[in-house]
């Protein structure tokens, strides 16, 4: 079957995570993603290890980090700070549908690779810039990284135990969630721009900022402030608006109890042999449970410790309330549901042998995602892509001699 984005060409000038996460999504959807990397060095994350993945050539290895967001792409080494390299990139732009970059604001303008310049060469080009703080505003020139934006965007103020609890204080999330969300927003914006182009024939510029994404992703916590005037606080893994919705210690481990409505709470109480709690005037609906959070949680801590993790999970399945184990990553990939959904895939690679990757969560009935290309070796496709531009062996040799590739 034809892939959803078959025929779409993407130039990926981004590095690290947010941009590559977006372009990997586009590659999963069938786009031809050409990853433009610095000769001899490549994407910074190739060296962000250990752990490393050893290539079939003993002299080659790349960090596992790189493999999380670069499958399905072709790697071209190209130094566009050299005029010969810039000329090659311009030729790639002529044939491209999308360009994604995450250089500092104005960083590509000095090379004539900004949107205003390139849109004159290719008016249909969709040009997506990803930065820490956006193209405007007093912070525009600042570099931005995920952890910094988690802090500045409020996420760390609501993550972690409260200051009054031992070990309390601000914490970042255990994965670069702002980068990942930014990549997803960038993907959505690019797809919308591609659809708009089918109607207008025109490309456009997309400005995506990590800080904007983080503020938008505060979701209900932001609404609690802008509509209710309440400044959210850190409360550990509990929920500010739902009770009980937090981890509990069991006889042999921990579970996450996530009661979303009064029906589920009643079902839990029946299963836990404490049916009277559902009728207690303090706990009979969620608003009251939030009001009397401490009293209810104290009761449940004692009750939950009477059974094992497996016993509580089985009771949840039998009685229809949400409860699950707090899995380590190895247990995640051993989970029968994760295995049934085939979230771990083996992808062949000439450069690395067969590598195991995490599958895309997108599932299509008509244009399924295929896993044919592992993340590329640095410069693995340079000669093939240059040949597609019509460059012969002599021209390629000249580029090498000039250190443009």
TrEMBL record:
One Pfam family hit: CoA_transf_3
Tree of life domain: Bacteria
UniProt keywords, alphabetically: Transferase
MF terms in GO: CoA-transferase activity
InterPro entries reported for this sequence: CoA-transferase_III_domain, CoA-Trfase_fam_III, CoA-Trfase_III_dom3_sf, CoA-Trfase_III_dom_1_sf
Name of the protein: Crotonobetainyl-CoA:carnitine CoA-transferase CaiB-like acyl-CoA transferase
Lineage: Bacteria, Pseudomonadati, Pseudomonadota, Betaproteobacteria, Burkholderiales
């Amino acid at each position: 079957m034809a892939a959803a984005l078959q025929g779409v060409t993407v130039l990926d000038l981004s590095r690290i995570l947010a941009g590559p996460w977006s372009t990997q999504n586009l590659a999963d959807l069938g786009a031809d993603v050409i990853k433009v990397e610095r000769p001899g060095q490549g994407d910074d994350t190739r060296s962000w290890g250990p752990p490393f993945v050893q290539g079939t050539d003993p002299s080659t290895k790349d960090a596992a980090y790189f493999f999380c967001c670069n499958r399905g792409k072709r790697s071209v080494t190209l130094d566009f700070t050299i005029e010969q390299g810039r000329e090659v990139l311009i030729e790639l732009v002529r044939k491209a549908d999308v360009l994604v970059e995450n250089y500092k604001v104005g960083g590509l303008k000095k090379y004539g690779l900004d949107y205003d310049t390139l849109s004159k060469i290719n008016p249909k080009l969709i040009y997506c810039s990803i930065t820490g703080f956006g193209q405007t505003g007093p912070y525009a020139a600042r570099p931005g990284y995920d952890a910094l934006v988690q802090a500045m965007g409020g996420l760390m103020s609501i993550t972690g135990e409260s200051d009054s609890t031992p070990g309390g204080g601000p914490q970042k999330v255990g994965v670069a969630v702002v980068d990942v969300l930014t990549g997803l927003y960038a993907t959505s914006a690019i797809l919308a721009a591609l659809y708009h182009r089918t109607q207008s024939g025109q490309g456009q510029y997309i400005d995506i900022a990590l800080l904007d994404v983080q503020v938008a992703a505060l979701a209900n916590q932001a609404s609690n402030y802008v509509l209710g005037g309440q400044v959210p606080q850190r409360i550990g893994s509990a929920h500010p608006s739902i009770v009980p919705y937090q981890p509990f210690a069991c006889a042999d481990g921990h579970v996450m109890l996530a009661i979303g409505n009064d029906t589920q709470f009643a079902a839990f109480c029946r299963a836990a042999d404490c049916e009277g709690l559902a009728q207690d005037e303090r706990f009979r609906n969620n608003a009251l449970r939030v009001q009397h959070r401490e009293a209810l949680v104290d009761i449940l801590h004692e009750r939950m410790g009477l059974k094992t993790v497996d016993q509580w999970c089985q009771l949840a399945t039998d009685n229809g309330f949400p409860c699950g184990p707090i899995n380590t990553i190895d247990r995640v990939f051993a989970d029968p549901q994760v295995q049934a959904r085939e979230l771990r895939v083996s992808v062949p690679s000439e450069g690395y042998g067969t590598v195991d990757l995490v599958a895309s969560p997108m599932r299509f009935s008509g244009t399924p995602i295929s896993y044919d290309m592992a993340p590329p070796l640095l410069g693995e496709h340079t000669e093939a892509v240059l040949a597609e531009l019509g460059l012969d062996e002599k021209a390629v040799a000249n580029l090498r001699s000039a250190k443009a590739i």
